[in-house]
Amino acid sequence: MTSSVLPSTRLTCSPSSPQQSNHLTSFLCNGNMPLSCGQERIGIDSKYEQEGKVQFVIDAVYAVAHALHNMHRDLCPERSGICPEMEMAGGKKLLKYIRAVSFNGSAGTSVTFNRNGDAPGRYDLFQYQLSNGSSPGYKLIGQWMDMLQLNVSITAD
């Protein structure tokens, strides 16, 4: 099992031409954007707030990368680059490798796929509770991740 953890991501840009590079540098580094040119970081201490679905995109990219790596290891051992066997493998073979990946995703949860190619369901279970000691509201009382996990100690006051 391969582990991938993204505690902090460095932002980099690779413009395809010198003209784009000059425009990008001018835009980012001449006061048009509040960046430090090369010192940008996304992590726990940054003010950046990630949209909630980005982790799924990150995990999807990692799933394909792991699958391609494993496919290369199996079909092109001791070679760098794409060998003829991998070039001719096709989408069905790649899908087989994607379904076989297993790693820790960007949110720290396991990324796996079942035989149909679906990720396992993960659900938080909430219960609306009225209590004397706190304001009424939904309280997290458990999770479903391949099996039910309840925290029976969380009850209304």
UniProtKB/TrEMBL annotation:
Keyword terms of this UniProt record: Glycoprotein, Membrane, Transmembrane, Transmembrane helix
Subcellular localization: Membrane
GO CC, one annotated term: membrane
Keyword Transmembrane helix in annotation: yes
Gene Ontology BP term (one): G protein-coupled receptor signaling pathway
InterPro entries associated with the record: ANF_lig-bd_rcpt (IPR001828), GPCR_3_mGluR7 (IPR001883), mGluR (IPR050726), Peripla_BP_I (IPR028082)
Domain Receptor ligand binding region residues, every copy: 21-129
Domain of life of the organism encoding this protein: Eukaryota
Disordered, as annotated region: 1-20
Signal sequence coordinates: none
Keyword flag Aminoacyl-tRNA synthetase: no
PANTHER family: METABOTROPIC GLUTAMATE RECEPTOR
Name the record gives this protein: Receptor ligand binding region domain-containing protein
